Amino acid sequence: MDGPYEQNDNKELTGFKGICQFMAAEGVIGVLGNLLVCYVILRVKFLHNMTNYLLVNLAVADMLLCLQAVCFYLVTPACTLIAFAPVNIGVRDLFCRLVASKFLAWALAFTSAYNLCLVTLERYIAIVHPLHYARKLTTARMVTLVVMVWVISLLLSVPFLFTIQSSDDSSKVCSAVSYPHPAFPILVSLFSVFFAYLLPLTLMSLAYYKMQVTLKRQAKALNMQHARAAAYDLVIARQNLVSMLKTVLGALIVLWTLCYLATLPCLHRTEQGVFSFCGTQSYRYTRLISVLLFNFNSVINPIIYEFKYKKFRQGFKIAFCSCFKRQGGNRVMDVAMVPI
Fold first, then answer.
1. Rounded to an integer, what distance in angstroms lies between the CA atom of residue 176 and that of residue 71?
2. Coil, strand or helix: which one is 161?
3. Are the CB atoms for 12 and 78 separated by under 8 Å?
4. I need a labelling partner for 111 at 20 to 30 A (CA). Which of 98, 142, 245, 312 fits?
5. Confidence band (pLDDT; 50, 70, 90) for 332?
6. Which domains does the chain show, CATH number per domain?
7. Gap between the Cα atoms of 218 and 224, Å rounded
8. Whether the predicted pLDDT of 84 surpasses 80
9. d(Cα 252, Cα 296) in Å, to the nearest integer?
10. Mind telling me which residue stretches traverse the membrane in this protein (predicted)?
11. How many CB atoms lie within 10 A of CB 281?
12. How large is the C-alpha radius of gyration of the chain?
């Protein structure tokens, strides 16, 4: 989520326009992929259920995260892909506090993590406490939870607004990174890693373990009772969906871990960091690689849906292939309308 915008990084990334172009291209692919997810789910009627609406919400968060990355790397002075120098002091201050400070990147990272928590919560109640599903997860309640996730994510990122401001130097857009107190970067790093990474991932991991145990018990009981094929198929469909969501969670853990480990000792890459290596060249390269992996998580989710989510593949074909819709659309809809 950090990027090569800080003034200290300009000299480091001079001549690395190819890296900037790659990261911007990565963001464009992420925007298009998540936009495609939203289009397919909203267009195809049999995908209109609570789980998929929450996946749309997650796709919107990932799409915005990729979009801010595109805008960030296009205007980064070291990349010079697009010349950008806001003259108005108010615009410059907004740009520095919202974009260069990484406020938006962190806010959208929080949003992405906690929106995935909402998807997990919905599946957890549907599988572990099915009798309470209709009462606990009403539409109004889920809308409230979604709004709360977005608002809380913005509030948790507020400390980053105070790390960079517009520069008094006319040759620079933003000032160098500064902290109100020496303990500020340490506290914010610990706070961010805990609430954006450790807490949501721990809760989701426990929830998926409980869901997997419950589904295996249900499948075993139905198999022993020689239950009707429809009931057994429903459990299998739920297992497949949980497997897809576990893959999404696994990808998030793999691709986010390096970035948060790199963030923990150094909130920003400056020579004035708490540790001396925060301003070294090797650490900057490590941080750059971690950013590539971090942003790739928002790119890979639509790919996971395509390969691991059977109903999404069916919806994709219906949304984009008119011949498939005419020849087999009704059959697909009959199968997919079974609630999971």
1. 20
2. helix
3. yes
4. 312
5. very low
6. 7-336 (1.20.1070.10)
7. 10
8. no
9. 9
10. 22-42, 54-83, 103-121, 142-164, 184-209, 248-268, 288-307
11. 9
12. 22
**Amino acid making up residue 236:** I
Residue-averaged pLDDT of the chain: 81
* Angle (CA) 83 88 90, round 5°: 115
Mean pLDDT on 1-19: 49
Q: Is the pLDDT of residue 333 over 90?
A: no
Q: Hey, what are 308's tokens?
A: 């691991």
Render 137-172 in DSSP notation, one character per residue.
S-HHHHHHHHHHHHHHHHHHTGGGGGS--B-SSTT-
Specify whether the CB–CB gap between 111 and 168 falls below 8 A.
Answer: no
User: What pTM does this model have?
Assistant: 0.84
Residue pLDDT, tens place only, 115-144: 999 999 999 999 999 999 999 999 999 999
Tell which wins on pLDDT, 297 or 92.
Answer: 297
Collapse the DSSP code of 138 into the 3-class scheme (helix H, G, I; strand E, B; otherwise coil) and give the result.
coil
* Alpha carbon separation from 166 to 78, 105, 258 (Å, rounded): 17, 18, 30
Under a CB-based contact definition with an 8 Å cutoff, are residues 190 and 279 in contact?
A: no
DSSP 180: S
CA angle 294, 299, 301 (to 5 degrees): 105
Q: Which of 139, 98, 145 is nearest to 120 (CA)?
A: 145
Q: CB under 8 Å to 241, separation ≥6 — which residues?
A: 51, 123, 309, 340
Percentage of residues in the chain having pLDDT higher than 70? 80
CB 136 within 8 A of CB 129: yes
Distance CA 283, CA 8 (A): 13
* 239 contact partners, CB below 8 Å, separation of at least 6: 215, 219
- Residues forming a β-bridge with 116: none
Q: Residue 166 forms beta bridges with which residues? A: 174
Instruction: Report the alpha-carbon distance of residue 32 to residue 40 in Å, rounded.
Output: 12
**Residue 319 has which token pair?**
């949304």
